[in-house]
Specification:
It is built from 12 helices and no strands. α3 runs antiparallel to α5 and α7 packs antiparallel against α8. By secondary structure, the protein is mostly helical. Helix content is about 75%, strand content about 0%.
């Protein structure tokens, strides 16, 4: 158990540091510190998401009995991945610091920057803290080996993360006008809705088939704390999806109405706290 936690504690920060060093030193790239930090953080998040989604698919397709069947990868990947959420809080803070420096706030101290970061990214930091302090012990110890199928389904929620990270990178380099950005935005909408919103009704539906119940009767047939847990996990996903939809609607209006006036662009960026020369999007705040 401790070996897997230690491996994850070395792998994710090590991959971040390695990618940052390569991005800064490769002759054809030679990005500055801030850009290397942001790209490296996105890369690590995407790799973790691909690993989690792959593990989730293997687990979910291997468990024919959704309650009793077990797969060794379930607990193993949970132990390996839990350090990622601790590391990612740090990585998000480093990205936030760089964005503040781009806006001209270099003089703010670390303490002040940390408080502002926690206020701005409260939902995501809370999500990560809950994953470590609540979801980790529940998944590894409280389940007692039951419900590996549902744990695999939860891993599949990470399938939307690579498109979210790619969208952030494209916006960082002001590529919102490209076809790639539009296609990636559509893919992000579909994967986020399918893997993070519809996932919960799907799991209720699967349990209804297993137990011989009608789907609408499942919430009354299972313990209350199961419903409460599902609601608490789904709530931030609905919030983040609403941000994605708002951003997509703004992009659609721009496509229909043409290029916005410079004043409109400036007002929107100021309203969302964006850097005027980087073009950060409001929906591209952390949402995995």
């Amino acid at each position: 158990m401790l070996e897997l936690v230690a491996a994850g504690s070395l792998f994710f920060p090590g991959l971040y540091l390695l990618s940052k060093r390569c991005l800064k030193q490769v002759p054809s790239l030679q990005w500055d510190e801030g850009d290397a930090v942001i790209i490296s953080a996105r890369l690590v998040s995407s790799i973790q998401a691909i690993m989690a989604s792959t593990a989730g698919y293997i687990i979910a397709t291997s468990c024919h009995d959704i309650i009793e069947d077990q797969h060794w990868l379930t607990s193993s990947y949970i132990l390996f991945a839990v350090p990622y959420f601790v590391y990612d809080i740090y990585a998000m803070f480093m990205c936030y610091r760089h964005k503040q420096q781009v806006k001209g706030h270099e003089g703010s101290g670390v303490g002040s920057a940390l408080l502002n970061y926690l206020r701005k990214e409260f939902m995501m930091v809370l999500h990560h803290v809950v994953m470590v302090t609540v979801c980790f012990p529940v998944s590894v110890f409280w389940r007692q080996g039951k419900g590996d199928f549902f744990q695999g389904c939860m891993f599949l929620a990470e399938l939307s993360t690579p498109s979210v990270c790619l969208g952030k990178i494209l916006i960082q380099y002001k590529q919102q006008h490209t076809l790639l950005h539009k296609v990636n935005g559509a893919l992000m909408l579909l994967t986020f809705f399918g893997c993070r919103i519809l996932l919960f009704p799907y799991m209720y539906w699967v349990y209804a088939r297993h137990a011989g119940l009608r789907p609408h009767s499942v919430p009354l047939a299972i313990p209350l704390h199961y419903n409460l847990g599902a609601a608490l996990l789904m709530a931030p996903q609905v919030y983040w999806f609403s941000l994605i939809c708002r951003g997509a609607f703004r992009l659609f209006k721009r496509i229909i109405g043409g290029t916005p006036k410079p004043r409109e662009v400036k007002e929107e960026r100021e309203r969302n706290g964006h850097a005027s020369d980087k073009g950060y999007s409001p929906i591209e705040q952390r949402s995995e």
